[in-house]
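Reviewers of the previous submission asked for a worked example of the structure-prediction workflow described in the proposal, so we include one complete record here. The input consisted solely of the amino acid sequence. No template or homolog information was supplied to the procedure at any stage.
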Amino acid sequence: MDKYKVYIDTSVISAYFDYRKPMRQLMTQKWFSYDAKEFALSVSTLVLEEIANNTDEMLMLNRLNLLDSLSVPVLEITEEILWLAGSYREEVLTKEVNDTIHIAAASYYSADAIVSWNFRHIVT
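From that input alone, the workflow returned the following structure tokens.
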């Protein structure tokens, strides 16, 4: 049986190292340690871009190393995804460009679920 396909947005990768929210950090670390291997995980090139925008180089490297250690495939953002994200912005999230791209990428690549700590835009 195929694994459940899960798209991970940047908030989850960030939470793994975010000591400012210890409960969320612990839950994220436990999920990656125990449960994540049960799923076919993926991220997009947008996740890598958002990670690269971090000014703390060590934190940026830690986040990239986490993805690398889990062998998480990186999905390309295509013109079709950008078009789909644009239509989401017209209907739902008018100002959230990156959030709609995450949602569109997950949809385009037929993810079964999106894992996110972004309760403001993605989870709700």
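Helices lie at 10-15, 22-35, 45-52, 57-69, 79-91, 97-108. We consider this example representative of the routine output the project will generate in years two and three.
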